[in-house]
Design brief:
Order of helices and strands: EHHEHHEHHEHHEEHHHEEHEHEEEH
Bound molecules: 6-O-phosphono-beta-D-glucopyranose
Distance between the termini: 5 Å
CATH superfamily: Glycosidases
Strand order of the largest sheet: 1-2-3-4-5-7-9-10
Radius of gyration: 21 Å
Largest sheet: 8 strands, parallel, barrel
Strand content: 5-15%
CATH architecture: Alpha-Beta Barrel
Number of strands: 12
Helix content: 25-40%
Structural class: alpha/beta
Number of helices: 14
Length: 476
């Protein structure tokens, strides 16, 4: 696309992964078990704990990034990456979460990883924790429902900020913090099960504790790394549309949207919205607010808004409808959106590139803070053709259409720091623990059962993204 407006000069093009979905080496160099380590194949949020020797746990080896990161970073560099988003496996640093001292081998691994990125002029963008918590914190305390998790998280945060200051500028406190209410074991190490007494209360207690922890991290970040450190939130974002112009649908849309904006409001505006407090009160939920909590949340709002975007949601006041998404239930079909490509049908979600432009404007209008698209992409089945290549034109089409909308939004005035597409190298899916749901520009030879050589092969999209970055988005 030749007439595209150019992206900003220092735009952070790159890709994003999470430690548990790529690293493997789950029990190496002093690492403790994490909640991800007890997720068996296809069992999101539902642990098989203790580890059963006859069960396959895809995260244990993942794509062995732990041992192969140098070669993988070379490939990222070849694509022209300016940024790489990953997370720190908390249980590499504090194996049980509440240990008094950090594990030096774990700290050293991230030192080496960040040095390698910096050596290649790739900016590390670090999620402090992404869908994994030291398992021991689940066993001992029931996860984030317990207030003591704030203290242990803060200890972890202080340790990594002190260690990596000068190497890492961009941080995000919790991956998709709004997902805690939907996948509480994965999002917050919660052990109480749906249907058990106190389940709902535990969810909201965990949410509040994470908000306090997140604001405390922003505070510490600026104290330790100075005012230039950029500490952001990370929200799973997708706009909600009303099914019709019926005002009742508009109200339903507003209500649905608030599932997400409450989480960004607390972290960006620094306070719980009044409607949310009233809603919780009506539900009989009591937020475990202690002295000083609301002040910390108010005083330490985030520096930027990181968000993932995969699709939009459409709702009707009539409720129900076809379920389109795991995370946000009760949505209806949107006749204006096309389904994903055949290769991605198994995990189908409606394709809505304009929804990304809408999201950028929506977030900028609401918060007026720098934005960062830290996830976007297409999980699809890739086939190795007879010529040995992977012709993933469906992925190129998907990404291209989204980036074209991003370019328009930038041209219309949106302040966007960067774009890190999800899974630049194939990785273990968080939703299904599959390898066959592939997002990468780089193919990894490994199947859903752990077979394969782990060999890396660039796909057609690799060269497409390389050209996009080289032209700073002019050649989309
Ligand atoms: C996001 C998560 O929700 O979506 C990632 O932050 C996840 O961890 C990504 O992998 C894609 O979802 P999935 O289920 O296809 O892996």
């Amino acid at each position: 696309m030749s007439n595209q407006p150019l992206f900003p000069k220092d735009f952070l093009w790159g890709g994003a992964v999470a430690a548990c979905q790529v690293e493997g080496a789950y029990n190496k160099d002093g690492k403790g078990l994490s909640t991800a380590d007890v997720i068996a194949h296809g069992m999101m949020n539902d642990p098989t704990d203790p580890i059963d020797p006859n069960t396959f746990y895809p995260y244990h080896e993942a794509i062995d990034f732990y041992h192969r990161y140098k070669d993988d970073i070379k490939l990222f560099k070849e694509m022209g990456f300016k940024a790489f988003r990953t997370s720190i496996a908390w249980s590499r640093i504090f194996p049980h979460g509440d240990d008094a001292r950090p594990n030096e081998a774990g700290l050293k691994f991230y030192d080496d990883l960040f040095d390698e990125l910096i050596k290649h002029d790739i900016e590390p963008v670090i999620t402090i924790t992404h869908f994994e918590t030291p398992l021991s914190l689940a066993h001992k305390y029931g996860g984030w429902a317990d207030r003591r998790l704030i203290e242990y998280y803060t200890r972890f945060v202080r340790t990594i900020f002190e260690r990596y200051k000068g190497k890492v500028k961009y941080w995000m406190t919790f991956n998709e913090i709004n997902i805690i209410l939907h996948i509480p074991f994965t999002g917050g190490a919660l052990t109480v099960k749906k249907g058990e007494a106190g389940y709902e209360q535990a969810l909201y207690s965990a949410m509040h504790h994470q908000f306090v922890a997140s604001a405390t991290a922003v505070k510490l970040g600026h104290e330790i790394m100075g005012k230039d450190a950029m500490i952001g939130c990370m929200i799973a974002f997708g706009p909600t549309y009303p099914e019709t112009s019926n005002p009742l649908d508009a109200l339903k849309m507003q209500e649905h949207m608030r599932n997400t904006t409450t989480f960004s409001d607390v972290q960006v505006r620094g306070a719980y919205p009044e409607h949310y407090l009233r809603e919780l009160e009506k539900k009989g939920i009591k937020l475990p607010i202690e002295a000083g909590d609301l002040e910390v949340i108010k005083a330490h709002t985030v520096d930027f808004i990181g968000f993932s975007y995969y699709s939009s949601h459409t709702v009707s006041h009539k409720g129900g409808g076809e379920e389109q998404s795991n995370f946000f239930k009760n949505t209806v079909k949107n006749p204006y959106l096309s389904p994903v490509d055949e290769s991605a049908k198994e995990w189908s979600w409606p394709v809505d590139p304009i929804g990304l432009r809408y999201s950028l404007h929506y977030l900028q209008d609401r918060y007026n803070k720098p934005l960062f698209i830290v996830e976007n992409g297409l999980g699809a089945k890739d086939v190795i053709a007879e010529d040995g290549k992977i012709h993933d034109d469906y992925r190129i089409t998907y990404l291209k259409r989204h980036l074209q909308e991003v370019a328009i939004a930038i041209d219309e005035g949106v302040n966007l720091l960067g774009y890190t597409s999800w899974g630049p190298i194939d990785l273990v899916s968080a939703g299904t623990s599959q390898m066959s749901k592939r997002y990468g520009y780089i193919y990894v030879d490994r199947d859903d059962h752990g077979n394969g050589t782990l060999k890396r092969t660039p796909k057609e999209s690799f060269y497409w993204y390389q050209a996009v970055i080289k032209s700073n988005g002019a050649h989309l």
